[in-house]
């Protein structure tokens, strides 16, 4: 007599598939961790760039000088009007990031025409990476360079 099969999966077949999925996930987990770190770096740099462009635009549209102050060895910066001292924006960066001044002296000032008052650079240091932010004279240009 022939045994009748219900066309289902046995417990051993399901355990083998579950074991294979577990091994694949364990192998790929470190890659997801690094991808999350890269996404965080990208977010921090994009936010900093947008905030600096906002400070420049604020100075031009309100025809006032705007200061950008980076806290040395701490992960925060703030943007304020020079006259009156009104704080426009204060931002803290999460994680192990910190600013280190190199040739830039605080505060960085965006003039009424959008230019910075002096050239210089500073470092944004993370756990594994360092970025150099360079401010150029003329038209308020700046760029970020990975070190």
From TrEMBL:
**Subcellular location as annotated:** Cell surface
Q: Which keywords describe this protein according to UniProt?
A: Competence, Membrane, Transmembrane, Transmembrane helix
Any one of the GO BP annotations: establishment of competence for transformation
- What sections of the protein cross the membrane? 12-32
**Which Pfam families is this protein grouped with?**
N_methyl
Q: Which GO terms describe its cellular component?
A: cell surface
Among InterPro entries, the record links this protein to: ComGD, N_methyl_site, Pilin-like
Q: Does the keyword ATP-binding apply?
A: no
The domain of life for this entry's organism is Bacteria
Classification via SUPFAM superfamilies: Pili subunits (SSF54523)
Q: What is this protein called?
A: Prepilin-type N-terminal cleavage/methylation domain-containing protein
UniProt organism field: Geobacillus sp. (strain Y4.1MC1)
Q: State the taxonomy lineage.
A: Bacteria, Bacillati, Bacillota, Bacilli, Bacillales
């Amino acid at each position: 007599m022939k045994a009748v099969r219900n066309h289902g999966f046995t417990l051993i077949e399901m355990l083998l598939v579950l074991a294979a999925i577990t091994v694949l996930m364990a192998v790929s987990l470190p890659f997801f961790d690094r991808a999350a770190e890269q996404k965080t770096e990208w977010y921090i740099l994009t936010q900093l760039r947008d905030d600096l462009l906002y400070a420049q635009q604020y100075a031009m549209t309100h025809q006032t000088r705007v200061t950008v102050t980076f806290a040395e060895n701490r992960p925060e910066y703030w943007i304020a009007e020079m006259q009156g001292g009104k704080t426009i924006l204060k931002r803290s960066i999460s994680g192990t990031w910190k600013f280190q001044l190199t040739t830039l002296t605080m505060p960085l000032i965006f003039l009424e025409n959008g230019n910075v008052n002096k050239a210089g650079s500073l470092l944004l240091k993370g756990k594994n990476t360092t970025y150099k932010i360079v401010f150029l004279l003329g038209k308020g240009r700046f760029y970020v360079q990975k070190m």
